[in-house]
Amino acid sequence: MKLVLASNNAGKLAELQDLFAPLGVQLVRQAELGIPEAPEPHRTFVENALAKARHAARESGLPAVADDAGLCVEAFGGLPGVDTAYYATQHGYPKGDDHNVTALLEQMRDVGDRRAALVSTLVALRHADDPEPLVATGRAPGLITRERVGAHGFGFDPVMFIPALGKTFAELDPEVKNRHSHRGQAARAMLELMRERWFSPTPPV
Questions:
Q1: What is residue 43's predicted lDDT score, i.e. its pLDDT?
Q2: 3-50 pLDDT per residue, tens
């Protein structure tokens, strides 16, 4: 089964492709099909993920899956949240993962409460007008470090310290990270929903 991924992020594609492999699902990035990114005007992850999935499904004619994820910092009232991808631009930097990390470390330089969570919401649709979207969420709580630690991963991985593991996400091998990450949690929940709703055995006649 081929699904269009409503994202052009290569890191997301690699992580989700590994996680979806057990179902024999092949993910293709929307950019490879010439589909532009959808607007993300909403203030919650689930609303934006649904909008992106509907857009990708409508433009491609394929089932679609979309991920909306972000960093929610306790000291900032849950922000940057859905604006995570553009966090750097709010503080005078160009858009980009490394600039996001730089801006975050600067904004939290004198902040004592380092609690934060990486949150992921996945939405899957059989077609653009699917009235019953599958929705799965994952949440990885941790602490923001005071400097970058580790060389793996992407996004905020170098500054997201997971107390239960004693390491940042960027210090973990991809397989270990996928077991504990917000996106890994959401993907596993989505796999179960797909097995139940989309791939269940045909009932006897």
A1: 95
A2: 999 987 777 788 788 878 888 888 999 999 999 989 888 999 999 999
d(CA 51, CA 36) in angstroms, rounded, equals 13
What's 140's domain CATH number? 3.90.950.10
Is residue 115 a known part of a binding site? no
Query: Residue 197 is inside which H or E element, if any?
Result: helix 182-197
pLDDT at 202: 59
Residue 156 annotated as binding site? yes
Residue type, 57: A
> Is 77 among the annotated ligand-binding positions?
no
In a domain, 202, yes or no: no
**Mean pLDDT of the chain, nearest integer:** 92
Catalytic residues: 68
Range of the domain at 108: 2-197
**Is position 10 within any domain?**
yes
Domain count for the chain: 1
